[in-house]
Design a protein that fits this description.
heterodimer; A: 194 residues; B: mainly alpha; 8 helices
Chain lengths: 194, 175
């Protein structure tokens, strides 16, 4: 799908330029934007190195675990089908805290382990209720610090690169809560039908 | 609404302070761990490079040809009527499909309109506040061999729509 979108945007642009007589601008844009993207990616290194470095310290200092503990009661409520103290709960918590701090690479293996545990619980190749809830949490992407976005804003000399942290948190909480409510709605509707 | 802006400015330095104090108190080698974790950041920036080049070039072609502006002008009466800034539509449409493509679009919007413009702030909020629904479903269900996804896709996409609306409302109120 993304292949068509990517090719489509460039193709439409080039054909439109033929009709519109803007081929000069297009030709210039191809090379200018490519070099700009490289400059940008290299500029991202500063924030990414700094943030991932700090997060490694935070992880080893037990701060992520402490935050995970804070969320445990909520997670138990959200996943009523998973028995208390089942390993799935632990993996779900690590996955969510890693995501919150922008550690996508650390979050994915934890999430997959959580899915494996939930599959053992359900024992079928149909998504269980807990799995759908877990993915609802993940797709809505609960974030506290949107590192990459902050880095990009710095690169384009924003007066205040971090000023969007507040709005991001409100938006992410809204969409996460909605995801959980929608998930509950679909679940209870399917139960009532039976 | 100065409060939310203030929190935005305070949250990172304060988090940093807590991490460093706890690390020193627990006597763990903070500096060595920092360097070790930082190496991953270098890798990450380089792995993003080809995605950003590809996507930004493609959108730049579309924008510089005038096709994107023509499209935005065409749809803007409808979108403005319901309160959606038309410039943001391509990003909103791609966000659930591909994270790196959306990142490229966010960058291009920040570049074209400025990071501190309404569009720049809105794009930043939208990019940061949600994850890529299709990617998450493919990776997680694929990894454990789930064939029937139940309502997961519906739930994910509906939550994305709400997230996009929430971003527009919140950015309009705060800034």
């Amino acid at each position: 799908m993304i292949n068509y979108i990517w090719a489509g945007m460039a193709a439409v642009g080039i054909v439109y330029a033929m009709i519109n007589g803007t081929m000069d601008e297009v030709n210039e844009a191809i090379f200018e934007s490519a070099s700009e993207a490289v400059t940008l990616s290299i500029g991202l290194i500063s924030v990414l190195v700094f943030w991932l470095g700090i997060m490694r310290v935070a992880e080893k200092a037990g701060i992520l675990d402490a935050i995970a503990k804070l969320f445990k009661p909520i997670i138990k409520k959200i996943f009523p089908e998973i028995p208390e103290d089942h390993p799935a709960i632990g993996y779900i918590l690590s996955n969510i805290t890693a995501n919150m701090f922008g550690l996508g690479n650390a979050a994915t293996p934890m999430g997959i382990k959580a899915m494996e545990q939930m599959k053992q619980l359900s024992g079928s190749d149909t998504a269980s209720r807990s799995m759908v809830t877990f993915l609802a949490l993940n797709t809505s992407g609960l974030t506290l610090i949107p590192t990459t976005v902050i880095a990009i804003r710095m690169q384009y000399s924003s007066a205040s690169p971090t000023e969007i942290v507040g709005t991001t948190i409100i938006a992410t909480v809204t969409s996460t809560v909605s995801a959980l409510l929608i998930d509950r709605y679909f679940y209870y509707r399917s139960v009532w039908r039976k | 609404m100065g409060l939310i802006t203030q929190i935005s400015i305070w949250v990172i330095p304060c988090f940093l302070l807590v991490v460093l104090l706890v690390a020193s108190w627990k006597r763990i080698p903070a500096y060595e761990l920092f360097v070790e974790g930082g190496k991953e950041g270098v890798k990450m920036a380089f792995s993003l490079l080809p995605f950003l080049v590809g996507m930004i070039v493609s959108i730049s072609i579309l924008r510089s040809s005038g096709a994107l502006d023509a499209f935005i002008t065409l749809i803007s009466p409808v979108l403005t009527f319901v309160g959606i800034p038309p410039e943001i539509l391509p990003l909103a449409a791609v966000r659930p499909i591909s994270g790196t493509a959306a990142l490229g679009m966010t960058t291009e919007l920040i570049d074209s309109y400025g990071p501190d413009s309404f569009i720049g702030r809105l794009a930043s909020t939208m990019q940061g506040s949600t994850d890529t629904t299709l990617y998450v479903l493919t990776v997680y269900f694929g990894a454990v061999g789930i064939r029937r996804m139940g309502n997961a896709l519906k739930v994910g996409l509906l939550a994305d729509v709400i997230g996009i609306i929430a971003s527009i409302v919140i950015v309009s109120i705060v800034f």
